[in-house]
Amino acid sequence: MTEFSKSYSPSHITGFFSVDNNLNPKKKGAIGAGIILKDGCITKIEKNESKEIKIYINGIEDEARTSRYVASEILGKDLGEEGVTIRSNFGVPVKGGFGTSAAGAISTALALNDLYSKNLTFNRLSEMAHVAEVVNKTGLGDVDAISVSGGLVMRKKGGSVNYGSFDIIPIGETKVGYIFLKEMCTKDVLKDGKIMNMVNKVGREMLKSLVKRPTLENFMRLSCKFSCEIGLADGKIKDAIEDVMANGGLASMAMIGGTVFAINEYDCLKDHGRLYETEIMFGRPHIIR
């Protein structure tokens, strides 16, 4: 009988952020805020005889460097004796601003820890996934937000769960609608000095405003303001956001991805692309039995 382990991680949309730099990748991260979504990632891992790490994203073999980094760190010398096949399937668009690399990394860490009985704590695994994101430039804070407890998460100090500072804004069950318009590469945006100067300035201002009025509605308005001021929202994204606002809803652009997400009245998004629905969830990544 094949030995395997399965795990689940929610996804995460960042509304706004600012880089919190540090030479130590465990302490480097981002401040800001975002929502945790029910549709996320399910990862199944089984041993193989190739002595290699094979990773499949939605059924297609992929380099998946962030998850691969985590696997190498956890397996260590075990990798020389046998290999593993990692299959991560996502219920949200990859490269759409849903923190999929983070969800893939933390679910990979959990499943490997279970499969090989490494007996590592959740925070240790989360920190490994955080470092993998920072080192590979695929994210700065999604792993940490996903690891806290769900809902609407404020990141007040950057870094892994062992070093950062987080707070949760109490909210009720909320449906979220979204359209995915285009892929965006997080690494490309993070190395764009002009954009990042704006991100770091505006992101800190948005967090201060959210701390003063910590509500879901204010988060959405501040996220919209952020996406417009930093210049990432193009014509199609702006048009979709404005349409939702005109119809009584609240909308913004996912950071960093070509996705428009909205709450309340968002049926008009159908006029701009294929409308998907999910919901804000409350919980953390876990093993599936």
Which features characterize this protein?
Ribosomal Protein S5, domain 2; Alpha-Beta Plaits; 4-stranded antiparallel sheet; 289 residues; 8-stranded mixed sheet; alpha+beta
Can you walk through the features of this model?
With 289 residues, this protein is of the alpha+beta class. The protein has 2 domains: 4-169, 2-Layer Sandwich (Ribosomal Protein S5, domain 2), CATH 3.30.230; 175-279, GHMP kinase, C-terminal domain (Alpha-Beta Plaits). The protein contains 8 helices and 12 strands. The chain has helices at 65-75, 100-115, 122-136, 142-148, 186-190, 193-212, 216-229, 235-246; strands at residues 4-20, 29-48, 53-57, 60-61, 83-90, 152-157, 165-169, 175-182, 250-253, 258-263, 276-279, 286-288. The strands form 2 sheets. Strands 1, 2, 3, 4, 5, 6, 7 and 12 form an 8-stranded mixed beta sheet that branches. Helix 2 (100-115) crosses helix 4 (142-148) and helix 3 runs antiparallel to helix 4. The model has no long low-confidence stretch (mean pLDDT 95).
Helix content: 25-40%
Contiguous runs where pLDDT drops below 50 for at least 5 residues: none
| Domain module tally | 2
Structural class computed from helices and strand pairing: alpha+beta
Rg over alpha carbons:
18 Å
What is the CATH class of the largest domain? Alpha Beta
Number of helices: 8
Count of individual beta strands: 12
The pLDDT mean sits at: 95
Layout of secondary structure:
Layout: E1 4-20, E2 29-48, E3 53-57, E4 60-61, H1 65-75, E5 83-90, H2 100-115, H3 122-136, H4 142-148, E6 152-157, E7 165-169, E8 175-182, H5 186-190, H6 193-212, H7 216-229, H8 235-246, E9 250-253, E10 258-263, E11 276-279, E12 286-288
Parallel strand pairs: 3-5
Antiparallel strand pairs: 1-2, 1-12, 2-5, 2-6, 3-4, 6-7, 8-10, 8-11, 9-10
Helix pairs in contact: 1-2, 1-3, 2-3, 2-4, 3-4, 6-7
